[in-house]
Write a structure and sequence with these properties.
Pfam families: HECT. This is HECT-type E3 ubiquitin transferase. Keywords: Cytoplasm, Phosphoprotein, Repeat, Transferase, Ubl conjugation pathway. It catalyses: S-ubiquitinyl-[E2 ubiquitin-conjugating enzyme]-L-cysteine + [acceptor protein]-L-lysine = [E2 ubiquitin-conjugating enzyme]-L-cysteine + N(6)-ubiquitinyl-[acceptor protein]-L-lysine. By secondary structure, this protein is of the alpha/beta class. Helices cover 45% and strands 7% of the residues. It has 15 helices and six strands. The chain has helices spanning 4-7, 26-40, 47-57, 67-74, 80-84, 88-98, 110-113, 145-155, 159-170, 184-192, 199-204, 216-227, 230-241, 287-300, 307-317, and strands spanning 120-122, 128-130, 206-209, 257-261, 271-273, 278-281. A hairpin with a 5-residue loop joins β1 (120-122) and β2. The longest helix has 15 residues, at 26-40.
């Protein structure tokens, strides 16, 4: 029921009913990440609007899609190679028809090898149906088999209708006709960012509070992050920012990654301020203990759950200004 300009620009403010989340960006990011997980599981169908928001806000989404989807979105031609990623058996059968001359088959014995007599194909429900309008009246021959294969590729792409719906959703947020000016790979980077979390990139955008590059705590942190698997790095990003992807272009990061030392009991759990892309570290007695505490935090705190505590604390101590973060 929203108008396009209501979701265009910097997105929207999130208020979670029954929770104390105070949205300064982190709750928005966390909610978008939850939406991406729902998209992957097929729960919601508002991908187009989210894709547009990702491009506008320069905050990427973790929605791994087949390359052919991005090609369809920008209008690039698709081939058997693209189809094979989602339907390998059908792609192999089409290759067999296309390259049948390599096996010595000619026009004379074509139908002895290929039982299809017209422009029909097997649907996703295993039914033999026309692959183009009037396909049953178009005979399949040795000479027009390449045309048949080209049409069959598009016939076998049921997501064409879904892609059209995604483009319609994107049109709410961004000028969709301009998609023809970018490549499929570029659009994927604009929407999804980098599939792997680069520690080197994080080191280039870090800012320290009560610490510096030579601090033992800092050296331990980078060693631990380097030892993490990419799955653990994704959890770490979710913990400190509410997001699970980094933009492909470093200039698109709206905030620098902050690492801050806090005056708390040694060897406690780290905390984070997702709104400010900030990690808060207490002192640690060893790198091993720090790694164990950090792993525990990122695996067991995947959602924002300390906001009621923070709201009560801010009320008792006076509102904390952004300059303090």
């Amino acid at each position: 029921s929203l108008e396009p300009d209501e979701v265009r620009g910097s997105g929207w403010e999130v208020k979670l009913v029954g929770e104390g989340a105070d949205d300064a960006g982190g709750v928005f990011d966390d909610t978008i990440t939850e939406m991406c997980q729902e998209l992957i599981s097929g729960v919601v169908t508002t991908a187009g609007i989210l894709f547009g928001v990702a491009v506008r806000t320069k905050k990427p989404l973790a929605v791994p899609l087949a390359p052919l989807v991005w090609k369809l979105l920008v209008g690039e031609p698709v081939s058997i190679d693209d189809l094979e990623e989602t339907d390998s058996l059908y792609a192999q059968s089409l290759r067999g028809i296309r390259d049948i001359h390599l096996s010595g088959v000619t026009e004379a014995n074509f139908h002895e090898v290929i039982p299809l007599e017209c422009f029909e194909g097997t649907s996703c429900t295993s039914q033999l149906v026309p692959i183009v309008a009037g396909g049953r009246s178009i005979p399949l021959t040795f000479h027009n088999r390449l045309q048949y294969v080209e049409q069959a590729v598009h016939f076998r792409l049921p997501m064409v209708v879904l892609v059209a719906a995604v483009r319609e959703g994107m049109a709410w947020i961004i000028p969709v006709p301009l998609l023809s000016l970018v490549t499929a790979q570029h659009l994927e980077q604009l929407v999804c960012g980098l599939p792997h979390i680069s520690i080197q990139l994080l080191r280039r955008v870090v800012r320290y509070r009560e610490l510096d590059e030579s601090s033992l705590l800092v050296q331990w942190l980078w060693d631990i992050l380097e030892s993490f698997t990419n799955a653990e790095r994704v959890l770490f990003m979710r913990f400190v920012s509410g997001r699970s992807r980094l933009p492909a272009n470093l200039a698109d990061l709206s905030q620098r990654f902050q690492v801050m030392k806090v005056d708390r009991a040694p060897d406690g759990l780290p905390t984070a301020q997702t709104c400010f892309f900030q990690l808060r570290l207490p002192p640690y007695s060893s790198q091993e203990i720090m790694a164990e505490r950090l792993r525990y935090a990122i695996n067991n705190c995947r959602s924002i759950d300390m906001d009621n505590y923070m709201l009560a604390r801010n009320t008792d101590m006076g509102q904390i200004s952004d300059d303090e973060y």
